[in-house]
Design brief:
Elements: E1 3-11, E2 15-18, H1 19-25, H2 30-37, E3 41-44, H3 51-60, H4 65-70, E4 71-77, H5 88-95, E5 103-107, H6 113-127, E6 132-141, E7 154-164, E8 169-171, E9 176-179, E10 185-186, E11 195-196, H7 198-220, E12 229-232, H8 237-248, H9 253-266, H10 268-273, H11 280-291, E13 300-307, E14 311-319, H12 329-337, E15 340-341, H13 344-352, E16 362-363, E17 373-379, E18 382-387
Parallel strand pairs: 2-15, 4-5, 4-6, 12-13
Antiparallel strand pairs: 1-7, 1-8, 2-3, 6-7, 8-14, 9-14, 10-11, 13-14, 16-17, 17-18
Helix pairs in contact: 1-2, 3-5, 7-8, 8-9, 9-11
Amino acid sequence: MKIGIDKIGFYTPNMYVETENLAKARHIDPGKFTIGIGQEKMAVTPITQDAVSLAANAALEILTAEDKKAIDYVIFATESGIDHSKAASIYIHELLDLEPNVRSIEVKQACYSATAGIQIAKGHIALNPESKVLILGADISRYGLETSGEVTQGAGAVAMVVSADPKIMTIESPSVYQTEDVMDFWRPLHSDTAFVQGKYSVDQYIKFFQNLYYAHHDKTNIGLSDLDAILFHLPYTKMGMKALKSVVEEANEADRERLLANFDISKRYNAIVGNIYTGSLYLSLISLLELNTTIEAGSRIGLFSYGSGAVGEFFTGILQPNYREALYKEKHDNMLDNRTEVSVEAYEKTFQDTIPSGTENIELPIEQDPATICFAGIKDHMRQYVNKNN
């Protein structure tokens, strides 16, 4: 049975700041951000958006009534959870008006967990071939103002429907994976911003990629010449390039040029949205599929998933016939083109506009947010969401 990605879409907030302007405000050479880090724009999240609303907006545009009837599992992957107990997927279930007979869970392991969701979905569909699984990877990346990681912030969500006989890409087996206790990035319960050891994290990321790529090659005999592209989790785009270059030096010229060119295409959306943590690898997949003009059905794509802490996985997928017809490029183009650029001062104000811990009641200005689904506030300590279409 072929199992894989049947639909895929993404959502990002309607505001962004240019990293060039951010660099100037921080008295840093803009080239260090735009070239050295490889980021051009950074999504800015209004107070009316959180991981739940971002994910719901991502899913809203790709699900049909038929999908909603077939979905019997919702897997929400995030490290920006809004409750220690209740799964974010339960809010999604209500906002999207899914059928009652659905499993709904939340999974966490830094930026890796959407990949864990895919592997869970594969097992579920193998036992239930008529089922569809909705996987959501949604996060808001926060490092704090004037920190070393500030330019690698971002926000957004990717929504995927995984099914048998998928329209976009089958997921091949086997994959290879690795766990190691690494303190390269973490966010304690008391903090709303992350801690990171930057150079150490880059070293671990590259080490994991090399270990897993070669382990996968040993297990499957799939090498660089068999891959049309290799995609990466991209905290910032230059990080993926460093990892790719660590293996393509051994490739022949044709393979090296193909893999580097397709990486350049795959990083585009990440460069203008920023780091979206769990959805980052799959945002790169969307970028490659929607922006390339040469990759045909039957092509094999390598995917490197990494979550600090650390867990990594390398696996491959095969593009399906007419995969381009299942994409949402026009919708994504419109969303990205209609975003509003904000000043560094406005970004800083928005960043600091947060709800104090323990707030019992608050109403938020959802009329200022063009998104269909918004976080509307808190009532009696219960989060409130609004779907403006209802």
